[in-house]
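Recap quiz, item 2
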Amino acid sequence: AQKVTQAQTEISVVEKEDVTLDCVYETRDTTYYLFWYKQPPSGELVFLIRRNSFDEQNEISGRYSWNFQKSTSSFNFTITASQVVDSAVYFCALSDVFFGNEKLTFGTGTRLTIIP
Amino acid sequence: KAGVTQTPRYLIKTRGQQVTLSCSPISGHRSVSWYQQTPGQGLQFLFEYFSETQRNKGNFPGRFSGRQFSNSRSEMNVSTLELGDSALYLCASSSRQANTEAFFGQGTRLTVV
């Protein structure tokens, strides 16, 4: 069975600080996909990144970076120089189906509050 | 390009009633997935439809059902509503192609009283 654990329920940091959101996953499959989504108060889930299990390359996109480590089954997300607009609930998700985007198993989310 | 549209946005129903929620995917997307989000259980996968056929199913009772039309629009139905069905129901559309992501709608907030 698949499982995604986001141990940090809530995090608060002062604006411009760096913050890392942790994600640990469990799966028996050798091919799987990992995602991060952001959920602002409006409710919709906003896609941030997708990573395939065979691609352990870390990724940086502006102030966002992701560290994927298969050895520890972790896919952590770091926001550098946080801004108030980053305040939201962040979800890590896992999928083992063929295309990877049609059935997601989500973690419980981390509520991030950026204090101005 | 229009996003994923879910209607209605808010709904209040009485226990025992049934409800139908609608989701119009992004143009060209033929896969629609449904999720239930509650404070207690988090985000849980309900089912996925592709080409009018249910392709994947989560662990929900038979009271939860869905369908997809030839234009890829999807509906989900919940019969004999229970208080615990109160949730935000999100739908996601995707093209079911490699290296693509699912796009989510803003959801339907269902309250059962």
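The radius of gyration of chain B is 13 Å.
The longest strand of chain B covers residues 42-50.
End of item.
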